Amino acid sequence: MRQSPVRDAGSGQRRSAAERGGAARLESLTGLRWFATFGVFLSHVDILLPLPHTRGLFSLGESGVSLFFVLSGFVLAWNWSPDHGAGAFYGRRFARVWPLLAVAVALPTVFAATSKGGPAVPHLLLISASAVLLVQAWVPGWILLGASPVTWSLSCEAFFYGLFPGLMRRLAGASAARLAVLAGTAVAALWGVRIGLWLAYPPVRHVTSLDGYGPAVFCVYSPLARLPQFLIGMATAVAVRRGLRLPSVRVAVAALLVPVTALWLLRGCAFRGAVLFDASDVALTPFFALLIAALARRDLAGGRSFLRSRPLVRLGQWSYAFYLFQFTVLLPMALAASPGRQVADFFTDPVRPGLGHLGYAVAALAITLGVSAFCYRFVEHPLERRLRRRFGSGPRAGWAWSPPDPAVSRK
C-alpha cells in the first residue's frame, strides 16, 4: 500500500509538498497501517496470552482488519490511473501480496505438521494450499483454521482486487450523491448482516465449538461479507480527490473515540464476549474512513503528522510481514505459557488472564518485529521489485489532482 506522488493539491489550500516541487506521499497512511497491525496483535494476545484488566479493550484490536480493508480500498482508488490496464494492476497486486504469503503459510504448516498432537497432515496441507491459492475464506469450515489463520483476510483482498478495475471505472465519474449513497448502503449492509447474525445465532459469552456456526462464520469473515468495507474506502478516496471538505484529524480522532468508548463500556455484553458476534468492526468502519480521509487531506496540505515520522513509516512498511507472522510467533509462546493445550483450546476454553503472560507477549512482539524487518528487507521488498519488472508493471502513478469541484467543496 505504498502511496504514489500526487500532483497539484488544488486551489484554495496551503501549498503541499507536491506544489513546492517535492513528491507528495500519503505517508500518514503508511504509519496508520502499523497501528492496524498492532491492534490485531493485541487481539491475539487477548486470546493466547491474556493480561489482567485488558479484556474488552485488546479485543477491539480485531477491528484492525476492518481498518486494513477500508485502507486498502482507499489506497488502491487513490493510486488508480485510467492509463493502467487491469493486467498491470493484477501483476502489481500479485507481486505485492503473494511471495510473502507463500512463505508465511509454508513455515507454520511445517511447524504444525511436525508437532506432536497436531492436525491431520492431509487436511492441514489442503487448507494451507487454499490459503496460498487465496480461496481459504470461501470455505466456511476452513476460514479460521489452518496453520496460519490470519490468511483468511488475504482471500478477501484477492476478491476485492478482482473486482477493483471494473468498480473503479464506474466510481471515477460518480457524482457526490452516488458516492454518498454507496457509502451509506455499505454501512447499512454491514449492520444488516450483523443484526441478522445476532437474530439467527443469539450471542453467547464464549463459543465452545464452531460446529453449527458455519453460516455465521461466512457472514463475518467471507469476501462477500467484507466487500462493503472495501467499497467504503474506495468511495472515500474518490470523494477526497474531488475536494470534499473534511473535519480536522483531531475531530476525526475524537469521533472515533465515541464508538470505542461505547464498546469498552459494553464489554460485559454477550455480543462483545465472542469475536464471532463482536460489533466492533461494523461500528468502527465509517469512523475509520473518516480518519483516513482526514489524514490524507492533512498530508496533501503539508500538515505535520507523527504518523509520517521515520520510525512509524518504517513500522508501516513492516506491517504486512508483521501481520502474517504475529500469530505464528504468538502461538508457541502461548503453548509454553499454558502447557498441555492445543490450538483450539485457546478459543473454546479461554485462558485465565495472568501477569505472567506479559513477558511472553513482549518477547513475541520483539521476535515478530525482528522477523518482519528481516522479511521486508530480504524477501518481501526484493521479490516484489523483481516480479514487477517481470510483469512489466513499472512504477505506479496516482491520480493527477485538479482543483476541487466548488459544488462538492461547499458540502
UniProtKB/TrEMBL annotation:
Domain Acyltransferase: residue ranges: 28-376
UniProt key word Transmembrane: yes
UniProt entry keywords in alphabetical sequence: Acyltransferase, Membrane, Transferase, Transmembrane, Transmembrane helix
Molecular function in Gene Ontology: acyltransferase activity
Pfam families: Acyl_transf_3
InterPro entries in the cross-refs: Acyl_transf_3_dom, Acyltransferase_3
Spans traversing the lipid bilayer: 63-81, 93-112, 124-144, 150-167, 179-201, 213-237, 249-267, 273-296, 317-338, 358-379
PANTHER family named among the record's database cross-references: ACETYLTRANSFERASE, ACYL_TRANSF_3 DOMAIN-CONTAINING PROTEIN
Protein name: Acyltransferase
Provenance organism: Actinacidiphila acididurans
Higher taxonomy: Bacteria, Bacillati, Actinomycetota, Actinomycetes, Kitasatosporales
